[in-house]
Amino acid sequence: MSKQESSAYPPIERGASLLLAWRLDGRRVLLIGGGAVAASRLGFLLQSGAHVTIVSPGPLEASIAYRVATEPDHITWHDRAYGSSEGGDVSADDELPVGDYDMVLTAVDDVALSRAVCLAARAARTPVNVADVPPECDFYFGAQVRRGPLQAMVSTSGAGPKIAVIVRDLVADAIPENVEDAIEGVGALRAELRERAPGVGGELSKRRMRWMIGTCDAWTLGEMGAMKAPEVRRRLLDDGWEKHKVLGPEAVGVGASVSARVAKALDGAGAVWAAGAGGLFTGAAVATLATLYFVRR
Amino acid sequence: MSKQESSAYPPIERGASLLLAWRLDGRRVLLIGGGAVAASRLGFLLQSGAHVTIVSPGPLEASIAYRVATEPDHITWHDRAYGSSEGGDVSADDELPVGDYDMVLTAVDDVALSRAVCLAARAARTPVNVADVPPECDFYFGAQVRRGPLQAMVSTSGAGPKIAVIVRDLVADAIPENVEDAIEGVGALRAELRERAPGVGGELSKRRMRWMIGTCDAWTLGEMGAMKAPEVRRRLLDDGWEKHKVLGPEAVGVGASVSARVAKALDGAGAVWAAGAGGLFTGAAVATLATLYFVRR
């Protein structure tokens, strides 16, 4: 192996998790527990469209109780403890076996029950998370932020959960306000492109992907929201796709492009410069008037 | 339900994925395919410590070939196509059945084979991802960034993959350079705290968590790296934990704390304010001198 070849492929840095966006729409999830941690899990599960079976003796944490009352199509609540215990032995033997579910989450203070559920889930090949017990987790939750169709997660695989939260807040600040408009606009463009040039795989599929990437590269995030307008999409497809061209915003009459570019340039360091310049002029003006006033007296 | 109660719990915004950090250390993954997409998957799998079985006729994409040659303990390569086909029917019938694996990924241009693998994986309850065919995916990959133990992912659940990449780059810029030091320092502190006050669950566990969160709140990310020093941790534990106190960096002699706090305060909006103020004074000074000069002539 030559030096150049090996340096092209850096050594593998192990210790990571595989970060995933798990699809739960229409799937069945078993949630064992009814406290604050279970409440947090429930929120994420409902957002993902899962049907959640909660097993926990009441009273439930307030937000869980609210969701049970208002989301009857998405939640079934069993007001009892999970599993059985005989002669002091806790087991996951229950009329709602973990193997009937697509995912199992436990958030209870019962170490023996958690362990029994984990073992049963592994035997049934059901993905499982036991809150606060890493060895009994097939997956961890991270610190998250959602902006409509865009989601971001920060994870330290348990090494620093509080730091994950701090970084998540920085990440949330870094996500542009108009990202939802951009996703909506680009999504509508891609959908119409697929109507014009349908099919999966092959040369056309590759050309479609290249054109979409090229077009996205020619627009800023702030400009992409303009693609929500049908006329803009029509011009991109008629004058761009059909003619094997990639068009920027100016080419399809998106007038806000200049101001959007300026806004983008001013973002971050640019804003510091602008504020400095603004301050410079304000300071100069005030000082000039003041100096004239005092000198002329 | 009173107005106040319902406004405390916002309506569920569906359509999200459940973002997860999947643990694959020591797990077995079947990767069908040997091209560019498979290469990207392989990188993430190796970082997560999985053992990967690759099934694909050679030649392999260059980086896959390199990993096969240099990671013999983590990769087994079968130089052949996956599955069988008889009378034009493709099936996932193979001597390496998907049910023997903890996860199956396919990245091939063969639609019939992908579908067969997906069906077999679902029957065997093995999580599956078929590249570019969302309905055949239990999970999606997002745009990712890794900084040692910290990982972040941006996903649009397929609505705007290119936008996810753009936002990922913004997110990468927003993650502080020294975050690895912070995680290492806080991780070492937490490990030593667990040695002093061991046990899972109960009051002690809660006090431990409260103290860790309180301590993290009293330190900036930039300061936390100082916890890598054993003397700093010893003082935090002896003078803080043992005495039921939360200590900031000054209390344990971390000198950089003031400048770090100033740097933190100046970050973002603070920098704009400071630049504006700086400009104000500079502008005032220059204008005053200039005005005096011209008026006095």
From TrEMBL, chains A, B:
It catalyses: precorrin-2 + NAD(+) = sirohydrochlorin + NADH + 2 H(+). Residues 176-246 form the Siroheme biosynthesis protein Met8 C-terminal domain. The keyword Zinc-finger does not apply. Pathway: Porphyrin-containing compound metabolism; siroheme biosynthesis; sirohydrochlorin from precorrin-2: step 1/1. InterPro entries: Met8-like, Met8_C, NAD(P)-bd_dom_sf, Sirohaem_synthase_central, Sirohaem_synthase_N. Its EC number is 1.3.1.76. The keyword Cytoplasm does not apply. Residues 147-172 form the Siroheme synthase central domain. Keywords: Membrane, NAD, Oxidoreductase, Porphyrin biosynthesis, Transmembrane, Transmembrane helix. SUPFAM superfamilies: NAD(P)-binding Rossmann-fold domains, Siroheme synthase middle domains-like. The chain crosses the membrane at residues 271-295. This is precorrin-2 dehydrogenase. It comes from Vanrija albida. The gene is MET8.
